Amino acid sequence: MYLMPIRKCTPAKIGINWIRTYSTNKDDDRSPLSGIRILDLTRIIAGPYCTMLLGDLGAEIFKIEKPGSGDESRNWGPPFLGDAKEAAYFLCVNRNKKSICVDLKKGKDIIYDLAKKCDILVENYIPGTLSRMGYGYDHIKHVAPHLIYCSLTGYGSEGPYAKKPGYDVIASSLGGLMHITGPKDGSPCKAGVAVTDIATGLYAHGAIMAALLQRMKTKKGQWIQCDLLSTQVASLINIGSNYLNAGKEAKRWGSEHESIVPYEAFKTKDGFMTVGAGSDLQFKNLLEKLEIAELQNDERFQSNTNRVKNRDELLLILRKKFKEKTNKEWNEIFQGASFPYGKINTIKEVFEDPHVQHVKLVREMDHPTIGKIKIVGPAVKYSYAKNDVRSPPPILGQHTHEVLQTILNYSEDTINNLRDENIIQ
């Protein structure tokens, strides 16, 4: 069973107004983060992706947005949906959250009050921005010493780039990803989705979970720093190791693999089929399926080392062979194969794929202004824990009144005054 927060003052024992006890609610017990509250000061992708994952696991997410405009990604379209013009971009990473509109310049007391009630604060402002407004870690830790404070930035809080704004495509440029992505003889390309943003959100998600576990032992909060550039450099894996240990500079390979042959997207009669033969046995099986088993006896292709050395000769043969049939025909021929294979799907084909449909990745839910919307649900399944789509992405300021009244116990008059003074929306 997980440990949930109980609001009770025990400062003599742990120095903060929190103790932990076991939940006896069966439904809460299935949600690993039920009872955990997150003060979400993030926008765009990396931060919202992180907090969405925590929300899937049951955390209560208070998404703080700028009155009038909110998270910038609300305006990143088309496409927009419904009369309220909700951006599909915003919808993809903001489920399971409560939108609270607070002017950060005027609403410090509100943010401090929420910090005292929360377990985690996540923000992705340029270093120094929140500190100038009184929301930096050094400020918050005095208000809420139990709080786990996670910063997602472009380049971290120190170094020559610390004050620069960071976007996924810039981090993937500086971090080498674009240098190794694209056609062999073509220009650098960015990935089709913001993979560096997503990876940073995943790093932050894991770091926050670890900090929660550590707080169970120490009863202390701490500051976590995640940044796009460090994430991207760490994600270079074998490419980074090749350079650091062998001095080998990387280059673009298109869909080919530098160290494994064959391993690429082959053009077929009506599309592309990706095949990877990571072992000699898999390569032998591929040749049998392609009905060119005689190549097994060719010394140039009998080991992966030889195939890498003689890639041009081998790929010339394989590419010609793949063009003889359609994706559907190759799919039927490759059934039961020991090597991995798959056709390159359009996005339409992805969501029509029988396996994607079988595992029910796509969820449908009711949005308060749009009606029915579809989102891609959690990618991780547990045998017992509940990891689920709980509520639709919120409309701007949808939960401001509710949270101030039920969580902070503000009176109706106080809330109305804050609204009249344009501190909240």
UniProtKB/TrEMBL annotation:
Q: Name one GO molecular function term.
A: succinate-hydroxymethylglutarate CoA-transferase activity
Keywords from the named record: Transferase
Q: Which domain of life is it from?
A: Eukaryota
Q: A GO CC term?
A: mitochondrion
The family note in this entry says: Belongs to the CoA-transferase III family.
* Name of this protein: Succinate--hydroxymethylglutarate CoA-transferase
